[in-house]
Design a protein that fits this description.
Elements lengths: L1 E4 L2 E8 L2 E7 L8 H16 L5 E6 L11 H5 L4 H20 L3 E6 L2 E3 L1 H8 L2 E5 L3 E3 L13 H18 L5 E2 H7 L4 E3 L2 H16 L3 H11 L6 H16 L2 H12 L1
Parallel strand pairs: 3-4, 4-5, 5-7, 6-8, 7-10
Antiparallel strand pairs: 1-2, 2-3, 8-9
Helix pairs in contact: 1-3, 3-4, 3-9, 4-5
Length: about 260
């Protein structure tokens, strides 16, 4: 099943208990609002499917894993409410991932920015290549990683999150992300990464689904209020995104 959206798509394939959800956008696998909506819906649907035992979340191509939110949509925001709705897209994906009863494995290659880092952090297990890099660039355009902050902090701790949030122009290498706990494994090439994903997926699809559900509840204990919290964070980002400071910063970047 493929849903094409604004030159990109979200594609879902299920086989032998393993559901693979793949997204693609020609602009560095960035995620427009419509794709975020579709992604959240597909994760929710897979979670409700009794035949799905494990979910693999991946992006297409061999470039960036995820370029974060759509820059073109961000530039086009005019009101705080438009901003809140825009940033709630990543909130909905993160909440769908944490509430999904199946384990989610993220396949990470290339660079990962902003909201993409939040998606990786929301996965239960992330497997990456050694060329993967991460950055939270929001502060450079007058905003801040408010929506993704809670899940990134939960995954790598306050110190790691604050380093990414404050030094917003610096790329952190894959080994940094592995040492912090964002990536569970690193592999020298995509082939080795895919072998490891296949191995773990097969193990999980044959595991006791009730045990996996209970284990996931343990992993995400303490996040019960995130439905509200992440929407509140989206409102903060939405307000900042339409400020004069952010608009000027976005205009400077647009003209580069």
């Amino acid at each position: 099943m493929i849903h094409e959206i604004q030159d990109g798509y979200v594609k879902v394939e299920s086989r032998n208990g393993i559901t693979t959800i793949e997204f693609y956008h020609p602009q560095g696998n960035s995620l427009p609002s419509a794709m975020l909506t579709d992604l959240a819906q597909e994760i929710h649907s897979a979670g409700m499917d009794d035949d799905t035992r494990v979910i693999v979340l991946r992006s297409s191509g061999d470039g960036a894993f995820c370029g974060g939110a759509s820059f073109h949509e961000l530039v086009a925001l005019h009101t705080e409410e438009e901003g809140r709705l825009f940033f709630s897209g990543f909130a909905n994906v993160i909440n769908a991932m944490r509430k999904c009863p199946q384990m989610i494995i993220a396949r990470v290659h290339g660079k990962c920015v902003g909201g993409g880092v939040g998606i990786v952090a929301a996965a239960d297990y992330a497997i990456a290549t050694e060329t993967a890099e991460v950055k939270l660039s929001e502060l450079t355009i007058g905003i801040g990683p408010f929506v993704v902050g809670p899940v990134i902090e939960k995954r790598i701790g306050f110190a790691g999150f604050s380093q990414l949030a404050i030094d917003a122009s610096m790329w952190r290498p894959a080994d940094w992300a592995r040492r912090k706990g964002l990536f569970a494994e690193l592999h020298p090439n995509p082939e080795n990464m895919d072998e490891s994903i296949a191995r773990l997926s097969n193990e999980l699809r044959n595991a006791n689904p009730d045990a996996l559900r209970e284990l996931k509840k343990v992993f995400w204990k303490g996040t019960e209020l995130w439905d509200t919290l992440l929407q509140e964070r989206a409102a903060i980002s939405g307000k900042l995104a339409v400020s004069k400071y952010a608009k000027d910063a976005l205009e400077r970047r647009k003209s580069k």
